[in-house]
Design brief:
Elements (H helix, E strand, L loop, with lengths): L7 H14 L7 H7 L4 E5 L2 E4 L4 E4 L2 H4 L8 H13 L12 H13 L4 E7 L2 H18 L7 E5 L8 H6 L3 H4 L9 E4 L4 H4 L5 H19 L4 E6 L15 H11 L3 E5 L13 H5 L5 E4 L11 E6 H8 L15 H16 L2 H21 L5 E7 L2 E6 L15 H11 L2 E2 L1 E3 L2 E4 L7 H22 L1
Parallel strand pairs: 3-13, 5-6, 5-7, 7-8, 8-9
Antiparallel strand pairs: 1-2, 2-3, 4-10, 9-10, 11-12, 12-15, 14-15
Helix pairs in contact: 1-2, 4-14, 5-14, 10-11, 15-17, 16-17
Bound molecules: 4'-deoxy-4'-aminopyridoxal-5'-phosphate.
The site of 4'-deoxy-4'-aminopyridoxal-5'-phosphate has 15 residues, from helix 6.
Cofactor: pyridoxal 5'-phosphate
Pfam family, one: Aminotran_3
InterPro entries: Aminotrans_3 (IPR005814), Aminotrans_3_PPA_site (IPR049704), PyrdxlP-dep_Trfase (IPR015424), PyrdxlP-dep_Trfase_major (IPR015421), PyrdxlP-dep_Trfase_small (IPR015422)
Length: 459
């Protein structure tokens, strides 16, 4: 589909600049330069346009972040007004400003439990690094600096700073740029479809939670600072744990007095039909990270919500906490995040995802491709889903290594006006929360068509 802004010379010009000077994240830049990056020019609602005039349905909400959709004037105006009033000031020099203080209150108004204090950062990775330093420092304040082991999971994604990389469980990342941060341990992921064999979800949930207890006992309960996990693993392929998993994890953390940290960078701000994924999955963390949906991706901002136990320790302690960023609580990003949370409340978006569009999307997706020959399993909740592509539905046998089914499928999606991400052989979806019923229908039609094309390509 073409529109008036299409211009092939824009494509060539931007691609040339890009190839000459831009190094892309998580990309083989040399290979990309040869083929030329797709140039995105503008966006509205749930759609993007590229410089060739193609209209693309954004099934990933950018990178899991544009929750309130593109082109929201409320967010644009909030940035504009704040730019004029106070474009920047820091919060280091015993100073504050209205946007950061108000945003802390807005976030605390939607966080569960006693997560009442907020520390600001600019990215999910920085928020994770903040949690890592904070939980270790918490135990130091308690006179137990040796409690510094952080336990996380295989196939977890917690960002790509050295802290986030070390904490995450992605082998491809661990192999580069090491050595990693010490005193991090990992346990298995709760991937029922892929790793449970004949076990029921319930049995597998218990087994995977028990792995935490075993690890705590192995390294010594008195050495463990915290357990960190995404409520639903996102970049690992959208892995929804068995329903009993997180309640068991919480019990184990309580039993051994291990702090429980939720990485809500993807699940936060409505993605699963609650403000935070931990509410959907049934646990209450001591501390949690958030980013992405906090500003619907309009400006970079992230935060750590800190429970009373931890915040009281820091607030009651004599020392400074020697941590923070030039742009912690940036006023313009904060103003946008305030406007975003207010817009979410005004539009009742949590209810829309929980009771209306989320169930509709999950059902439509299953109707469209649940029986497709390529599809082994679909899992998801709210507006996030992961689809396992397999060679054999009955045995769950994967494709051989020479068939990169995920990439083949992703390329068909790109060519057919849909952005869908591939994580190995899992296809993932995370559309803007404002998506309409008609747009969900269109999305599911496109998924079906692209799965058909993928099947043709590999047959
Ligand atoms: N944690 C999780 C769960 C994430 O999904 C991500 C990003 N996808 C991050 C942390 C890192 O966030 P950022 O890319 O903003 O540093």
């Amino acid at each position: 589909m073409l529109d008036n802004n299409s211009n092939s010379s824009i494509t060539a010009d931007v691609q040339a600049l890009d190839a000459d000077h831009h190094m892309h994240p998580f990309t083989n830049t040399g290979a990309l330069n040869k083929k030329g990056a797709r140039v995105i020019t503008h966006a509205d609602g749930v759609y993007l346009w590229d410089s060739e005039g193609n209209k693309i349905l954004d099934g990933m909400a950018g990178l899991w972040c544009v929750n309130m959709g593109y082109g929201r004037t409320e967010l644009i105006e909030a940035a504009n007004e704040q730019m004029k009033q106070l474009p920047y000031y820091n919060t280091f020099f015993q100073t504050t400003h209205a946007p950061v203080a108000q945003l802390a209150k807005e976030i605390a108004s939607v966080t569960p439990g006693d997560l009442n204090h907020i520390f600001f950062a600019n990215s999910g990775s920085e928020a994770i690094d903040t949690i890592m330093r904070m939980v270790r420092q918490y135990w130091s304040i308690q006179g137990k600096p040796y409690r510094n082991i952080i336990i996380a999971r295989e196939n977890a994604y917690h960002g790509s700073t050295i802290g986030g990389t070390s904490l995450g469980g992605m082998g491809g990342m661990h192999n580069q740029g090491g050595p990693l941060v010490p005193n991090i341990s990992r346990i298995r992921q709760p991937y029922w479809y892929g790793e449970a064999g004949d076990m029921s979800e319930e049995e597998f949930g218990i087994l995977c939670a028990k792995a935490l207890e075993e690890k705590i006992l192995e390294v010594g309960p008195d050495n463990v600072a915290a357990f960190v996990g995404e409520p639903i693993q996102g970049a690992g392929g959208v892995i929804v744990p068995p329903a009993n998993y997180w309640t068991e994890i919480q019990k184990i953390c309580t039993k051994y007095d291990v702090l429980l940290a939720a990485d809500e960078v993807i699940c936060g701000f409505g993605r699963t039909g609650s403000w935070f994924g931990c509410e959907t999955l049934g646990f209450t963390p001591d501390i949690m990270s958030m980013a992405k949906g906090l500003s619907s991706g309009y400006l970079p901002i992230a935060a750590v919500a800190v429970g009373d136990r931890i915040s009281n320790a820091f607030i009651g302690h004599d020392d400074d906490f020697n941590h923070g960023f030039t742009y912690s609580g940036h006023p313009v990003a904060a103003a946008v995040a305030i406007a975003n949370i207010q817009l979410m409340k005004k539009d009742n978006i949590i209810d829309y995802v929980a009771k209306d569009i989320g169930p509709y999307f999950q059902q439509k997706l299953r109707e469209a491709v649940g029986e497709h020959p390529l599809v082994g399993h679909i899992e998801g909740v709210g507006l996030v889903a992961g689809i396992a592509l397999v060679k054999d539905k009955a045995t769950k046998a994967p494709f051989s290594d020479d068939i990169d089914v995920g990439m083949i499928c992703r390329d068909h999606c790109f060519a057919n006006g849909l952005i869908m991400r591939a994580v190995g052989s899992r296809m993932v979806l995370s559309p803007p929360l404002v998506i309409s019923h008609a747009e969900v229908d269109e999305l599911c039609d496109k998924v079906q068509r692209c799965f058909d094309l993928t099947l043709q390509s590999i047959s």
